[in-house]
Amino acid sequence: MTIGPDSSAAEIVDALVALGDPDRAAGSRRFFKTAPGEYGEGDEFVGIRVPVLRALAKRLRGLSAPTIVEVLESPIHEARQLALFVLTANIGARDSDRAAWVQVYRDAVRAGRVNNWDLVDCSADPVLGAWLLAADDYAELIEWASSEDLWERRVGIIGTFAFIRAGRADAVLAVAPIVVADRRDLIQKAFGWMLREVGKRIDRALLIDYLDAHAAEMGRTALSYAVEHLPAEERARYRAM
């Protein structure tokens, strides 16, 4: 089935189902922790690789907001990811109504449609983070990071990546006091990753200053991510704290 920007949500989802690989889907269900009690409990996969989804997103660029919203409502993980890829492409279009697309994204997150780490990580930075960077205001990221919901909090953390890419550590350092004590694995990994990127992309001294002051408060996973690119002796020193 050929799909394009005029396709309906049902046609898009049907095309994904037709492209699916049951063996890959089974592996994805294990990898994304969909068993009862796990963070991705109940999520459905049809088994499509991310490069294939990105290629489809190029063909769907210009898909209408109502259709994207409808695809985001699909129980199929790959459908929601495809919708986020298209949304990201649409927000980058020269004549796009960026404010409207960002609101579509906010609504999707609040509705629980951006509900796994890969969905957050492919969208929070280029959609919400980039919008807030352009506005020179990261206050909304602090609000998201203050949520007790796992995925909303991760959006607040990963959204700071847009600022880090622009050479600014202020957003993640403002979010840090809110999330440093959260021991959930997917929060730990996101927080440590953003700190690592501060040291890698902006200034290692900023990372060192933060670690000197706060390493003892950090969870083991966040600290391991944050110090990954430091020399072995420094890594050992911070882990001993």
Automatic annotation (TrEMBL):
Xref: Pfam families: DNA_alkylation (PF08713)
Coiled-coil ranges (or none): none
Protein name listed in UniProt: 3-methyladenine DNA glycosylase AlkD
Native organism: Gordonia humi
Gene3D superfamilies for this protein: 1.25.10.90
Spans traversing the lipid bilayer: none
